[in-house]
Every structure is written in structure tokens, then in C-alpha cells.
Amino acid sequence: MRILLSLLLAIAASLSPVRSYAESDFTLEEILELGLPVVIINTIDNEEPTAEYVTHPEGAMGEGITNATKVPGKVVVLSPDSVVIFDSGEYEKKESGMTVKIRGNTSAYTEKKPYKIKLQKKGDMLARGDKKFNDKNWVLIKSHRLKNWIGNRIGEFLEHPWVPAGMFVNVIFNDDYRGLYILQESIERNEKCRINVAEDGFVMEHDPYWWNEDGAYLESAQHPRYNFTFKYPDYEDADTEHLASIHDILKLYDASIEDGTYPDVIDVDSFANWVLGQDILGTGDGGGVNWYIIKNSLSDDSLLQCGPMWDFDSSEQKTDEFSRIHEGRFGKFFNNSNQAFTRAYVKRWDDIKEAVIQKTDSLIKDLKDPKWRAYDKSVSYDNKRWKSYEPSSLAVFNRVKKFYDDRFVWLENNINLLRGIETNVEEVTTAESFYKFDGDLLISSSDIDFISVTGIDGSTFFCGSLPSDEALRLPSGFWIVRTEGHSQKIIL
């Protein structure tokens, strides 16, 4: 073992002449002893990737980065017992090695950076022993309170067609210990192991950062602040016919939501399952949640589907509400003249809830297992490196145990409110002594101190007093009206 470790240290020394890390002063041997795989990145001349910070133009949202430099070099992955499980080789364009750049948007603003690695030759950095997993594109994501790890596991519980694989690693970058990361597959078209679409299909992101893509986007009529950007094909590589077809399909998608014909355009079950995942996680960021739309092929009748869930930093923020994306970008599906989406959402919850609740409970209890010691020791080193606080697995257990126990109870109670859709919107009580309806007008028949009108997604249309004979005009959709202890469900 000592001989093998000495050889590995010699390999590391050949990657860079110094093994004592200038910023963190941790040795490779110390990092290996933490018990997680170690990713060693060494760039040519120890060059550091850089990026410029930019903010959104008027009418848009978000902060991001631009002009991220791609720095060439070499990457090696060592197992916890010091075996080389991946080696990109020295950098030779299109032949071996890799380039690395800073990735992300607001996540790139912190001192600890997220990175994207692009191999010059396809390989599996997770060393799973099967060539089908080979790809050029990989990411190093910050752990962030285990939210990214938990989010991907819940994606698996919901049986998404593909969930990015990853593993916890410690990263050494140009002889400097950079801390604890998740080495993970990135969102890419790969028919064998990632998103399986034909060459004439597409993968688009409904993206709040469209303004940072140098014009490589298509407009979204439903949500102009979230236009469509290209994951596949590359905008620069797509021919005019392919781009025109993608544009036409996305315009049809937007229009179908307005006229209720969306079941002819989207895989309703796929969309409902994705939104349910966000609601289980209680995500609070309506903009930063990455939402991918997929079409398998332009040459067949395949429906639009949702890609994998991605970016879980804002999970666990909604405790007694639906996720923000449920209320925002998907609100028109719930408040729609065609209630197929709501029925699919309710049915998916009914079909999957027992398994998801059980698996999530087991997932959380597993955080108390001694196998998390390597993670916890790595957290301790990461906190020292960045003078920050990333919680231990036990602290995460204490947080998420209560959150998900409460969350599943809240979801069951509030999804039950959606079931009126399936029974043709029957009244709970009439409350006619307080108000009446005339077409799309809710008319007060007496002074009402309190009345609330909410959508089935939990969004509030009106809340307050309503003087006698005053009227509210309600948009088309499904509404719950509450006042003086009475409740009524209305569809317009």
C-alpha cells in the first residue's frame, strides 16, 4: 500500500512540481486519507480559468458570467485507496487531456467556483466500467447542504428517464485543495447514456439567462423573461431548416397552453411528473430552476417531454406552499380550460406517493450511517479551506427529516384540493347569502369583511373586503372562493 501511494505521489509530482498546496497547505496524502475519490486537475503553466461578471439588461433577470476562458490541462481521478481510476492524459487538442472553465451563474460569484470539464477524448470520469457512459462533458458542482444529492435521488424515485450520475469527490486544482464537490454528468445529448434524442431532435432550456447567449435563443410567448436557449443542437451548428422547425414547434407549444390543446403537443405525464418533483422538493426559485424541454425527433409524432430536474439550491424553501415554478411558469396548466394536466398531476401523486415517501424516508435515515464519515471529514476540510459552513450529514438529517415529514403531509392535504377537478367541480357549500356569480363576475350580495379567491396552484387573485354589490371579474380557469367559513369551487 505504501509503495502504491508513493508511486501515486510521484505521479502527482509529475503533474506539478509542488505537492504542498499554497492556499490550503493540505498534502495529497492528507486528502486521500479523508476517504473520498480525489480529482486532480493541473493546467498548462498553472493557468487559472477566469470569467467576467455580468448583470441582466432591463426587462430581464439574473446575474451571470461571460467570456469564461477554457484552460487546457490534464485531469486524473484517484480512488479512496489511491488507485488511478481515470486519466485524461496530457493535453493534445482533440486527442487527449481536457479543458476546464468556470460554469454557473450566481453560483460562480462565490470564492469557491463550480467548473465544467471537457475531455478531448470521450471517457467515463465516474469509472463505471462500461464504454456506453463515455462522454466529453462533466461538471464539478458544489455540494450545498446535500441538496443536489437529495434532488437527484428524488428524481430517481419519480422514475425520470435519465438522472445525472455523480459521486462526491475532493478536488485539487493546480496544487491547491479546492474542497468537496460532486463530479457529475452534465446535461448533454448522448443516445447511449444521457438524453436520448435523434440527430434531428432537440433539447432546449427555458432559460432566464437567455440574454447572456449572444442572441442564440428563441422567444417564449408565454414567459418572455424565460426564453429558450439551445442545449442540442448547438445554435451555431444547426442548419436553417432545423432551427425553423424548432421555432415552429415551440410556438405551437405556447399557443396550445392558451387554447387548451396542449395534450396534442406535450407528454402531459412527463410534464406533470417534473412539476410534482419540484413540489416535493419545495423549490423557491422560479427563475434559477433549470427546466429542459425535449423532442425526440422532428420526423415522428413524438410529444414534447421534460428533461431531468437540475439545480436544487433553492429546494426546501417552500414549506406550506407549492413550488414557485408550480405557481409561476406552470400556473397556466393548472388554471386552464383543459384540466388534463391537473388530472395527470393528481394521478401521478396517487400512483407514486407511497413509494416516494418510503424511499425518501430511507434516504434520510441513511444519513446516520457510518459510511458518511468520509463525507463528514471532507466537509470539515472544505470548511477550513473556505472559512465557511457546510453542515455534517447528521445536521442535514436533522434538517431534512422534519422538512420532508411535514412536506408530504402538506402535499397530501393540498393535492386533495385539486381532486374537485375530476368530479366536475362540485360545490363544497353554496354561500349564496354572501355572493353570487353572473358569468365571470363574482358579485357581493352584502358587505363582506373577508373574501379570498385563489387558484388551485395556491396563488392569490384577491384577498380583502368586498362591499355590497361590488364585483370581481375572474379570468378563465379554476378558482376556490372562501369567506365567512364557506367555500366554493368554480370553473370558468
Shape category: globular
Rounded radius of gyration (Å): 26 Å
Number of helices: 10
Beta-strand content: 25-35%
Lateral strand order in the biggest sheet: 1-4-6-7-8-10-9
List unreliable stretches of 5+ residues.
Answer: 1-22, 422-433
| Fraction of residues in helix | 25-40%
* Overall average pLDDT: 87
Strand elements, count: 22
Itemize the secondary structure elements and their pairings.
Blueprint: H1 2-15, H2 28-32, E1 38-43, E2 52-55, E3 63-66, E4 71-78, E5 84-87, E6 98-102, E7 115-123, E8 135-142, H3 147-157, E9 166-173, E10 176-185, E11 202-207, E12 217-218, E13 227-232, H4 240-259, H5 268-281, E14 291-295, E15 305-306, H6 324-327, H7 331-334, H8 340-365, H9 373-386, H10 393-415, E16 435-438, E17 441-444, E18 448-455, E19 460-466, E20 471-473, E21 478-483, E22 486-491
Parallel strand pairs: 1-9
Antiparallel strand pairs: 1-4, 2-3, 4-5, 4-6, 6-7, 7-8, 8-10, 9-10, 11-13, 11-14, 12-13, 14-15, 16-17, 17-20, 18-19, 18-21, 21-22
Helix pairs in contact: 3-8, 5-8, 8-10
Description:
The protein has 492 residues and is of the alpha+beta class. It has ten helices and 22 strands. It has helices at residues 2-15, 28-32, 147-157, 240-259, 268-281, 324-327, 331-334, 340-365, 373-386, 393-415; strands at 38-43, 52-55, 63-66, 71-78, 84-87, 98-102, 115-123, 135-142, 166-173, 176-185, 202-207, 217-218, 227-232, 291-295, 305-306, 435-438, 441-444, 448-455, 460-466, 471-473, 478-483, 486-491. Strands 1-4-6-7-8-10-9 form a seven-stranded mixed beta barrel. Strands 12-13-11-14-15 form a five-stranded antiparallel sheet. It has a four-stranded antiparallel sheet with strand order 19-18-21-22, with no helix packed on it. Strand 16 and strand 17 form a beta hairpin. Helix 3 crosses helix 8 (340-365) and helix 5 crosses helix 8 (340-365). The chain is globular and about 80 Å long. It starts with a helix and ends with a strand. Residues 1-22 and 422-433 have low confidence and may be disordered.
